[in-house]
Amino acid sequence: MGRPTEVDAGVGGHKGSTQPESATVPGNPDTRVAAMPGSALNVFGRPLAPCGFKPMTGYFRDGCCRTDPEDRGLHVVCAVMTADFLAYSRARGNDLSTAQPEYGFPGLAPGDRWCLCALRWLEALQAGMAPDVMLEATHLNALGVVSLDQLRLYAADVATDG
């Protein structure tokens, strides 16, 4: 059995989960603390903003890059799709452009916002193909994989931590 992708992870059965989320303590990405559902924090330690509703994104398909322990892919980076990134992802075996109606997935187009796996975003960064990110909508747990400085280089919003 293959590992879940951004498309199939979180489809079916996860909406309305009552399991607590975990969040990473700012400044110490190796420390995880429990957070109540609905109280997710972004990379600045503030309430997580929605990432996108058209198409509906998120591990829970609620528009937010929330997570919980079952989210093995850590779908926490709110990314703004580009043609280059979509082609890169397809070449890496995760076709996010093609609709998959059986999963209720319409396929993504440039400009769409999508909750990416943090490791996939890091991989794209290392390949020079990282899409921009919405910092206010990127979950704090992303900082366990990538640094805030790396994310800030690709910030599509004008959010600050001040």
Secondary-structure blueprint:
Layout: E1 21-25, E2 28-35, E3 75-80, H1 83-91, E4 113-117, H2 118-126, E5 132-133, H3 148-152
Write the CATH architecture name of the domain at 49-152. 2-Layer Sandwich
Physical arrangement of strands within the biggest beta sheet: 4-3-5
Name the helicity range.
10-25%
Total helices: the number is 3
Which radius of gyration do the C-alpha atoms yield? 14 Å
What kind of sheet is the major sheet? 3 strands, antiparallel
- Low-confidence residue ranges: 1-37
Assign the CATH topology of the domain at 49-152. Phenylalanyl-tRNA Synthetase, Chain B, domain 1
CATH superfamily of the domain at 49-152: Protein of unknown function DUF2237
Give the oligomer, counting copies of the same chain as homo and different chains as hetero. single chain
